[in-house]
Design goal:
The complex is a heterodimer of chains A (303) and B (314).
Chain A (H helix, E strand, L loop, with lengths): L1 H5 L4 H36 L2 E2 L8 E2 L3 H7 L2 H32 L6 H8 L1 H4 L2 H11 L6 H8 L16 H26 L3 H9 L4 H29 L3 H7 L10 H11 L3 H31 L1
Chain B lengths: L1 H39 L20 H8 L3 H32 L5 H13 L6 H26 L5 H42 L3 H9 L4 H12 L1 H17 L2 H6 L8 H11 L4 H36 L1
Helix pairs in contact in B: 1-12, 2-12, 3-6, 3-9, 3-11, 4-6, 5-6, 6-9, 7-8, 9-12, 11-12
The chains are: A mainly alpha (303), B mainly alpha (314).
Chain lengths: 303, 314
């Protein structure tokens, strides 16, 4: 009512009113337009060009960049590396997160103390985490090798991050160490929304703890699982700052990942068009993977 | 009776196993940090041989050396500078926009709002490439503009002053501004979303009362909406502060000179130049991590609330 009474009646006043309303969102829309929409469109334009990023002229080459990507063995190798890191994050990291969330959902003391500690790795920067672990895993002076030697496991001592056999796994484990706190917090929040009465009802019906886990917890947690899985996939596939901090930005092929290839195509070999084409291909892969996962988990829910 | 006590023992055992499990994981969460602080207190000579967690004679001078010789004072102040301006910018711009989307009517408001939502959901790997191109293009335009106007300016000001100020704009002001705006854009969408859901719950009566008291729209935003949204603003502040403080890649691409670099970039540069100077590197890393840890320990409730809110969108 008040709104209606205050609505100005003549047209110019009303237009002025609407224009001032636009002023509220204008700064946000301007920044968004310049720093999000424009680059978004620019990626598609550049992906069809061969351009070194310096010369004012660029050469239109159609879909040649995309054809090249299809045959780029290092690129698909880097995709496999990211997939490997993601696989370890999905199993090890999320498994750990779920176990911890289930443990903390019980009647235990100092729950908040553990919760605070588990979320320390996620709030630290990838640079700090990567450099600390690089120091711990150092081949010559790292404390891990020291510990292994002192407990008699001399045979396991190695240069963890230089050895192609262990480097990627070490990166994946450090990534999981940094990330499990996220899954833990989200899963715990999800577990706490399940009403206690459901568990009591299950117990009255004669369900054991394993049965109430598979028949009550898992079905009700499906949407939360699905969300954690998507966040894990998107986060792990795109990891790269951690790798820069752990093994450097140079041409280390056995630990390279797609985003590092994009960065390398741009800063290393000055091929901006190719970098953008790689970005588009990788973006599509991510969208397809998360959609497939979503469809899959929906099927699981109604099965 | 006997089976009951057996039951209790099994229950106790289960609890013990749970506590051991939780404690081991908790220990792995803090050990790397303790090792980092411990290493930062050893000397260049003992850091490779001393395997104790904390050295018997802590070398506190490392922090002084890292701050001065390691140039971490520059990086630290830069990080504070960027974090302050980006967070302030995000709060100002996102609260205005969220207020507009939530309480004001104008054609296309839904479309614009959904655009911000979509930006949160579409993955854009390698978006730093076009951003770098954009910043570079603007830089070129700026240099051209400065070259054009500086002859005219020299008629009014001394030549050295003009040269100094154009150099300052080119190497200091511009990269800093560009980085700040890029980072504002990174945090904008989620902040608008969080604030809009908050403003949507704001009772209409409050707005009407303020209007009758003579507030215009800006006044309602300033005196009604902002004070009400304080919890949401706290979440946004902490989240974006963590995000900016920890950001690396755009800093690498946009901020090329040492005196504009923030901590994360400074750490990688320092490590690249002094590969084996672990005590100073660890001291620099400790200085990078401590403000974050303090903020986290004070505001951990807000942080956890923010994650749950953010996860619901994603």
């Amino acid at each position: 009512m008040v709104e209606a009474r205050l609505q100005p009646k003549n047209l110019t006043m009303r237009i002025k009113h609407t224009l001032t309303n636009y002023l509220f969102v204008l700064p946000a829309v301007l920044i968004f337009g310049i720093f999000y929409v424009y680059p978004f469109i620019k990626v598609f334009q550049l992906s069809l060009m061969e351009w070194d990023g310096i010369l004012p002229t660029m050469q239109f080459i159609g879909i040649d960049n995309f054809k090249e990507i299809m045959e780029d063995k290092i690129w698909w190798g880097s995709m496999w590396h990211a997939g490997y890191i993601t696989l370890i994050a999905l199993t090890f990291q999320n498994g750990l997160a779920l176990l911890l969330a289930l443990a903390c959902n019980k009647e235990i003391r100092a729950k908040n103390f553990y919760r605070v500690l588990f979320f320390i790795p996620p709030i630290l920067s990838e640079v700090v985490v990567g450099l600390v672990w690089q120091w711990i895993l150092d081949g010559n002076y790292g404390v891990l090798n020291n510990i292994l030697t002192s407990i008699g496991l001399q045979s396991m001592v190695r240069n963890w991050l230089a050895d192609p056999k262990t480097a990627l796994t070490c990166i994946a484990i450090v990534h999981s160490w940094k990330g499990f706190g996220w899954g833990f917090i989200i899963l715990l929040a999800g577990l706490q929304t399940i009403p206690r009465q459901l568990y009591e009802a299950a117990r009255v019906d004669g369900a054991g703890s394993w049965q109430s886990f598979t028949k009550v917890t898992i079905p009700l947690m499906m949407p939360v699982f699905s969300m954690v899985i998507i966040l894990t996939i998107l986060g792990s596939m795109q990891v790269f700052v951690l790798i820069i901090a752990m093994v450097g930005q140079g041409l280390v092929y056995h630990t390279t990942v797609p985003v590092l290839r994009i960065l390398g195509a741009m800063t290393g070999s000055s091929r901006f068009g190719y970098a953008c084409a790689q970005g588009i291909v990788f973006g599509l892969v991510l969208i397809v993977v998360s959609f497939t996962q979503k469809k899959f988990s929906e099927k699981m829910k109604y099965a | 009776m006997k089976s009951n006590s057996k039951h209790i023992i099994i229950k106790r055992l289960k609890l013990v196993v749970i506590y051991i499990f939780l404690s081991i994981v908790a220990l792995t969460c803090v050990f790397p940090l303790l090792w980092m602080v411990g290493s930062s207190l050893k000397t260049q000579a003992t850091v490779f041989s001393d395997t104790s967690l904390f050295p018997a004679q802590p070398e506190w001078r490392n922090y002084y050396l890292a701050w001065t010789k390691g140039e971490f004072s520059i990086y630290f102040l830069n990080s504070i500078f960027y974090t302050t301006f980006v967070v302030f910018g995000i709060i100002l711009i996102s609260s205005l926009a969220a207020f507009g989307f939530s309480r004001l009517k104008f054609p296309g408001s839904n479309f614009l709002f959904y655009m911000f939502l979509a930006a949160m959901m579409i993955p854009l790997p390698g978006s730093f490439v076009p951003l770098y191109v954009l910043v570079n293009n603007i830089r070129k335009l700026l240099i051209e503009f400065l070259a054009n106007i500086s002859p005219q300016l020299m008629n009014f000001f001394p030549a050295s002053f003009v040269q100094q100020s154009t150099a300052f704009i080119q190497h200091q002001a511009f990269p800093r501004f560009a980085y700040i705006f890029c980072m504002i854009n990174v945090g904008l969408s989620l902040s608008i979303y969080i604030l809009k859901t908050f403003f949507d719950k704001m009772p209409k009566e409050l707005e009407d009362a303020a209007r009758i008291d003579g507030c215009n729209k800006l006044g309602i935003w300033r005196h009604v909406a902002i004070p009400l949204a304080r919890p949401a603003i706290a979440v946004i502040t902490i989240f974006n502060a963590l995000n900016v403080w920890n950001e690396y890649i755009l800093a690498q691409l946009i901020l090329s000179t040492k005196d504009t670099m923030p901590l994360q970039r400074g750490l990688i540069v320092f490590q690249g130049m002094h590969v084996t100077d672990y005590p100073l590197l660890m001291a620099g890393m400790t200085m990078t991590a401590i403000p974050i840890l303090i903020i986290y320990l004070i505001f951990q409730k807000h942080i956890i609330k923010g994650i749950t809110a953010g996860a619901v969108v994603g």
